[in-house]
Structures are given as structure tokens and as C-alpha cells.
Amino acid sequence: MAQRFYFDEGFRADLIIEGKVIAELKSVEKVSPANKKQTQTYLRLSGSKLGYLLNFGGEVMKAGITRCVNGLPE
Fold first, then answer.
1. For residues 13 and 7, what is the distance between their CA atoms, to the nearest angstrom?
2. Closest residue by Cα to residue 68 from 59, 44, 58
């Protein structure tokens, strides 16, 4: 079950899957370090270990998937 997760501070994760994995959705030409930091912040605030930054703005979806972890080896 996917749900939208809200933080009191105004942060909003796009999807939290099974309460464990955060998926942050973007549609930009190129993912910036700020986009990845945003996902990392959501991981830390929620206590989740794994997240994905999914960018739909590139030529192929495969190139737009960035794995983010909190407290795990990359």
C-alpha cells in the first residue's frame, strides 16, 4: 500500500511503500545533488532505510533511478 507521508515541518514524501521505502518522484532534465539530499532528509526524518529518487524527465527511465540509503552501505 502506498501513501503520502507528511512531516510537521512541511516536508512531504511523495510515496512511502509498506511503511519502509520512500519513493521521491521528479520530472527534471537532470537530477541535482539537492534532489538527492531531499530524499536523504526524508529517510532520516522518517527513520526509513531505503529510498528511490525516480526521475521521469530523462530519455530513458532506467537512467533516472537513484538509490538512496540511510545507515546502510551504498
1. 8
2. 44
